Amino acid sequence: MKLPDFLIIGAAKGGTTSLHYLLGQHPQIYMCPVKEPGFFWAYGQEVRLIGPGAEMLKHRVINDLDRYQKLFDDADDQKALGEATARYLAHPRSPELIHQFIPNAKLIASLRQPAERAFSAFVRRRRDGMEPCADFATAIQEEKQGLRKDWTYGGYLEKGLYYAALKRYLLYFEREQMHISLMEDLQDNPFTRQSGSATAEHFSFPRSR
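^ that's the sequence the OP posted. Answer follows.
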């Protein structure tokens, strides 16, 4: 049964796409070809995506174990298999589901200054047609008023509450299983221990499948 050895769990707009790409260049690492499959928040439930633009992402989300495992069918003799879904960090279901399927997983959290992270998410959603408000302040005010509480990909402020999110993970995983870095460090030097080959060494495993 092929499942990932490690997960990039977030944060959204915190450099997860860059990490996914960089780690995928390492010959001993196989990265899931689909970024953001969302299995460890969507598993076992009907996927209902609510809010502007949410339907655009529906084809990407996988809630079935067999379909998820097929994403790793092309892995050969790599020492580690990885997957990246930025929503795992903030989603309350994810820590328990990850522990249920891969309790020995290594977890990478790439964090970013929360206000900058939130504004970057706003800009991208405006670009992709997923944000109806023309200005950031109005979008934040609507979130504070609870007008977006049912939106699948809402939560500019919530996704910056890193302490609460990481605390949920520590209920299921040892601190040694988690690698926490800053996006700013990745930007300044992508080939230090924050990423690239050094991170690949940190997440190398003997294969047991």
